[in-house]
Amino acid sequence: MSVAEKQKKSGGLGETVSVIVQALLLALVIRTLLFQPFSIPSGSMRPTLLEGDYLFVTKWAYGYSRYSLPLSPNLFSGRVFGSDPERGDVVVFKFPPNPSLDYIKRVVGLPGDRIQMKDGQLYINGTAVAREKVGQIDNPDVTEVNRPVDVYRETLPNGVSYDTLDLTPDSIGDNTREFIVPEGHFFMMGDNRDNSTDSRFNVGFVPGENLVGRANIIFFSIASGASPLEIWKWPTEMRASRLFNFVR
């Protein structure tokens, strides 16, 4: 092999490595600053989000904390370019007792709010949140149970509306003490009110630093616990109607 051929081969390899490194750095920047993909692991946000939904989370929505970075290095505290979520936002956050775990819930309580559940009704600062029964869902893929489930539409004081499931009358989460949300913290609840580990229980108040981002859009959804890599299952298991739906 001539010297010129060796130089060409070496240059070609170096160029390939350079392109790969640049692509990895670009992906890291996008994941850290812009968008991060998440999959829904549980039914706590049904009917809004289902197990098997894959969504993008906007990382800049609330600014950046150490939890915005891969592996969550303890480089700084608090948030940079921080802003508070709005009531009703669906948020991915780090589980306060174990920040290695990602949770996704809806923000119902802001700093200083008084939050309580009475007979299945959400109260904010002593006032009942508007709630009306809008029907039933009889689809196990949405409810996870083989019977009709009551659906209630809640409308928060800022006008954000969403559906909640009422799986069990008089469940343990239907009546709670009054929670006073501390400064710099948020109160989170799942839309599947009787099957959600949230701020009523061991999640507690979520520090602003733990917020990862706002759930934005569902880019893929597949039922029955199938993997999106199992392309042969797409014709029967993919939930086509959920693709590219905004999370509200």
From TrEMBL:
Keyword field contains Metal-binding: no
Membrane topology note: Single-pass type II membrane protein
Enzyme class, first EC level, given as a word: hydrolase
GO-annotated molecular function: signal peptidase activity
The enzyme's E.C. designation: 3.4.21.89
Domain of life: Bacteria
InterPro entries documented for this protein: LexA/Signal_pep-like_sf, Pept_S26A_signal_pept_1, Pept_S26A_signal_pept_1_CS, Pept_S26A_signal_pept_1_Lys-AS, Peptidase_S26
One Pfam assignment: Peptidase_S26
Location within or outside the cell: Membrane
Gene3D superfamilies per UniProt: Umud Fragment, subunit A (2.10.109.10)
Protein name: Signal peptidase I
Organism: Aminobacter carboxidus
Gene (UniProt): lepB
